[in-house]
Write a structure and sequence with these properties.
By secondary structure, this protein is an alpha+beta fold. The chain contains two helices and two strands; from the N terminus they run ββαα.
């Protein structure tokens, strides 16, 4: 499976993201700790595909605080 895009709303550290992979062959993702890199590329897809959350925490704990 090759994802074409990911759209995230209030999940983990990410208030909103629309990531388009359609024109990307190779990429490097860099940023400070806590900015949502793992959330966007690991936990959001795992939650969508398999219902798996970070460290088996409750889904409510993955929803962004204050939303």
């Amino acid at each position: 499976m090759i994802p074409l895009s990911i759209e995230i709303h209030n999940f983990g550290a990410i208030p909103f993201a629309n990531i388009d992979f359609s024109n990307i062959d190779t990429a490097v993702v860099v940023g400070k700790n806590g900015y949502g890199k793992s959330t966007a590329f690991v936990w959001a897809p795992l939650w969508i595909l398999y219902g798996v959350t970070k460290n088996d925490c409750a889904v409510d704990d993955m929803v962004r605080r204050g939303t």
